[in-house]
Amino acid sequence: MKVLKFGGTSVGSPQRMKDVSKLITEDGQQKLVVLSAMSGTTNSLVEIAQYLYCGNKAGADDVINRLREKYYAHVPELLSGKTYQNKVQKFLEEKFNYLQSFPKENFTEKEEKIILAQGELISTFMVTCYLQEQGIKTALLPALEFMKTGRDGEPDMKYISNKIDEKLKEVPGMQIYITQGYICLNTDGNIDNLQRGGSDYTASIIGAAIKAEEIQIWTDIDGIHNNDPRLVDNTRPVRHLHFEEAAELAYFGAKILHPTCIQPAKAANIPVRLLNTMEPSAPGTVINNQSDPGRIAAVAAKDNITAIKIKSSRMLLAYGFLRKVFEIFETYRTSIDMICTSEVGVSVSIDNTRHLNEIVNELKQYGTVTVDSNMCIVCVVGDMVWENLGFESRALKALADIPIRMISYGGSNYNISFLVKESDKKLALQRLSDVLFNGKK
Ligand code: ASP
Ligand code: MG
């Protein structure tokens, strides 16, 4: 069975819900479908919780009432017969009364998580009812009955696997199984979630748990390109990526796939296919454990990077120097992205400058510190196994006219990164595209 995930915009209106229903039922094959909340809903639920945290019940009620009106209007648009209209109307009334019942006193994270879960509970109920009204054999599998995180906050794969099998056996022979993305129970048995955007993660976890044939992530954005089409001419869609390549690209804000989604699918060796609801027949991008020998997949960039250099003759022949440097970053919960070392100095890059001053002050006890702001990481992702000849030199040659602050190569088999000035980003991306993908010298 395939697992398909549709995000908030893909179920963002009754019409979109109908489009998704058509898309998942057309070929008549059995599927497990993970849905997000309708777009905007989770944000509204966050707002409701914020009002309740500060004891402003009227503020919360305002947001609830606006949301209620919006959802009530969806009912006759989505469903044509009285039976299902009444069923959904009643469900919505219960849900909105429930939301309204939270008192402003003693509002804690526990109540917040319950509120945040309502978006997915509603969207999945609506789509299930629509499919049933259309005569499609559809069952709603409540995620809160099988999605569970362990003590470490990570999904409890064994529990999930067993439970979901049980749940599927309770309702055999359905064409479509619908479930909620994002929401789960934690070890205390309370409602929790897999963080914002976590529906991709749900799909990946379920795919791994049921050993799905494929996990499909459907969005309404154009898939992964080999370079940024907003900045560079002549980009092409990327049809295949290794999981590691996808992980490298995820950091660069390739919005299409939530980074956490990669791990469960990779571990269970289940391919993930990224598809576009606007262009359902396009092949999309497949991510799996196969590499394309000798191929460069994509170039991506990330702005707002700060480089910090610590130069010290004390580093020469010393051990433990790097640990001391890293501990300072750890103290300030600032993660390091790129790192380059020489015998007498080390340069690192960070993208979170909240504690830059404190970090720089502490680093000064170990050497001379210089900071370069407004930098940009440009990264080339592909089969970069070190035995391959020529990739590094081609990439470097492409950047021959651009000042490069740092180069990182050899950290993985799939990546080479350059740190350049943000003002050189566009040129760097265009040059890499020309030389690596479009055959220019
Ligand atoms: N509805 C949740 C959010 O907006 C989860 C998701 O869409 O993946 O973050
Ligand atoms: Mg979403």
Residue-averaged pLDDT = 94
Structural class computed from helices and strand pairing: alpha/beta
Number of helices: 13
How large, in whole angstroms, is the Cα Rg?
25 Å
Shape: globular
Enumerate the spans where pLDDT stays under 50 for 5 or more consecutive residues.
Answer: none
Q: Major β-sheet, in short? A: 8 strands, mixed
How far apart the termini lie comes to 47 Å
- CATH topology name of the largest domain, in short, is Carbamate kinase
Helix content: 25-40%
The CATH level-2 architecture of the largest domain is identified as 3-Layer(aba) Sandwich
* Ligands: aspartic acid, magnesium ion
Number of structurally distinct domains: 2
Strand content: 15-25%
- Supply the CATH class of the largest domain: Alpha Beta
- Helix and strand element order: EHEHHHHEHEEEHEEHHEEEHEEHEHEEH
